[in-house]
Amino acid sequence: MPAVRRCALTAVPFGIAVVVYVGVFLASYDRLPGRMATHFSEEGGADGFTGRTAALWVGSGLLVGLGLLFSVLAMVTKESSGSRLTTAVGVGTAVTLGCPLVLTVLVNRDVQDPAEAQLPVWHVAVLLLAGVATGALTWWLTSARPGPGASARMP
Fold first, then answer.
1. Distance spanning both ends of the chain, measured CA to CA
2. What is the pLDDT of residues 10-67, one digit of tens each?
3. Which string of b and e fits 84-95 if b means at least 16 CB within 10 Å?
4. Which structural domain, as residue segments, surrounds residue 42?
5. How many CB atoms lie within 10 A of CB 13?
6. Which pTM was predicted?
7. Is 50 helix (H, G, I), strand (E, B) or coil?
8. Which residues of 111-137 are buried (b: 16+ CB within 10 A; e: fewer)?
9. SS3 of 149, please?
10. 97: in domain
């Protein structure tokens, strides 16, 4: 797969994650507490908090920054042995990071006290599995298959 296509394949999931996260955040902005629960214990209870505006900037900044990092890495690895891995890990990271960020916004909606927000651990396990599955699917889709006419060029 050409480097430009691999770069686009890596960038698009991060772009979707940013749009969804910012969209859900802004649509929910008036329903979010001024201080949001952003970290949860093993039992699912809130144990870390961030200001609403900071949560928006940090979450979107992480997605944009990692999206740029993985896209550049996908571009510069060219056709090396690590190019598929870079793309697969990048796409999996977009899902693994984007989904919990959106879910964090949703569990904070309409709570009076951010300590009331709950994020069960099984949600996180499902999101991690979704990231691994997406990365594995990307690995499979970017397999080194010869393009059309490749056999005609071989001696």
1. 22
2. 999 999 999 999 999 999 999 999 999 999 988 888 999 999 999 999 999 999 999 9
3. bbbbbbbbbbbb
4. 3-144
5. 21
6. 0.84
7. strand
8. beebeebebeeebbeebeeebeebbee
9. coil
10. yes
How far apart CA 47 and CA 114 sit, in angstroms, is 9
Q: Which amino acid is at 147?
A: G
Nearest to 125, CA basis, from 42, 16, 58: 42
Phi and psi torsions of 118, nearest 5°: -125, 135
- 73: Cβ–Cβ under 8 A, 6 or more apart, which residues? 10, 86, 90
110 lies in some domain: yes
Count of beta carbons in the 10 Å neighbourhood of residue 18: 20
Which H/E stretch holds residue 108? helix 83-108
The tokens describing 13, both together, are: 């999931």
Q: What is the domain count for the chain?
A: 1
Local structure of 40: helix, strand or coil: strand
